[in-house]
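Long-time lurker, first post. I've been practising inverse folding by hand and with some scripts of my own, and I keep getting stuck on stretches where the structure tokens seem ambiguous. Below is the full token string for one chain I'm working on. Before anyone asks, I'm not after the true native sequence, just a reasonable design that respects the backbone. If someone could post their per-position residues I'd love to compare against what I wrote down in my notebook.
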């Protein structure tokens, strides 16, 4: 009985959160990366992108969602890689905290960062990747564009060149 009640409660919370996430219209700040001019506005509406994977970074204690726009989603569904121009892959990172109602479970707490990759073969070509990289860090006063350069993004992601420079593979749902 208790379990049934609890799962009903959890389900309704989850549903409320889902609605919240999908209907929220974003008003992202008008900021851009200093080195490649990619703007936060470039992913306006990302809340409605499709979540394809969830990661947990143990060393950073950070929960991550990977979301893709419809161009990338269609391509992934068709097994098409490299992804086509116009594909956008977004990563949201949250700190985690114990759930107040169930401390053995963790839940997302504060957003730490939002970052994205956009496929644009006209603009980007770091040894054939055709991806542009952007990261926006959440601070107490809103978001701030990453100012330490995208070279580190390029270098680390080049280690998964054979997977179109993506670490993510869509998570199975069934
Ligand atoms: C030292 C390695 C490293 C660096 C540097 C790095 N990443 Fe990643 N990135 C990863 C790993 C590992 C994942 C998958 C795990 C995760 O979600 O954190 C990932 C995932 C991503 C994803 C989701 C798509 C994918 O490839 O799985 C995006 C978008 C992304 N990173 C953007 C960036 C941006 C933008 C930068 C630079 C500001 C950056 N990354 C720097 C290692 C790195």
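-- Answer (accepted) --
I ran through it position by position. Result:
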């Amino acid at each position: 009985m208790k379990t049934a009640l609890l799962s009903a409660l959890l389900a309704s919370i989850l549903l409320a959160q889902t609605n919240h996430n999908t209907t929220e219209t974003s008003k992202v700040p008008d900021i851009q990366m200093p080195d490649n001019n990619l703007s936060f506005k470039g992913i306006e509406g990302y809340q409605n992108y499709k979540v394809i994977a969830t990661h947990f970074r143990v060393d950073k204690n950070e929960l991550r969602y990977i979301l893709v726009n419809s161009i990338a989603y269609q391509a992934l569904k068709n097994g098409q890689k490299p992804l086509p121009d116009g594909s956008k892959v977004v990563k949201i990172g949250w700190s985690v905290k114990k759930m107040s109602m169930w401390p053995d479970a963790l839940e997302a707490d504060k957003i730490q960062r939002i970052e994205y990759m956009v496929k644009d073969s006209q603009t980007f070509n770091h040894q054939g990747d055709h991806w542009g990289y952007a990261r926006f860090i959440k601070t107490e006063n809103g978001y701030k564009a990453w100012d330490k350069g995208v070279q580190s993004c390029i270098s680390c992601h080049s280690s998964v060149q054979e997977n179109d420079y993506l670490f993510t593979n869509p998570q199975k749902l069934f």
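A couple of notes from the structure itself: Confidence is low (pLDDT under 50) at residues 12-23. Residues 55, 57, 64, 66, 89, 91, 115-117, 133-135, 146, 150, 152-153, 156-157, 166-168 surround heme C (CB under 6 Å). Happy to go over any region you disagree with.
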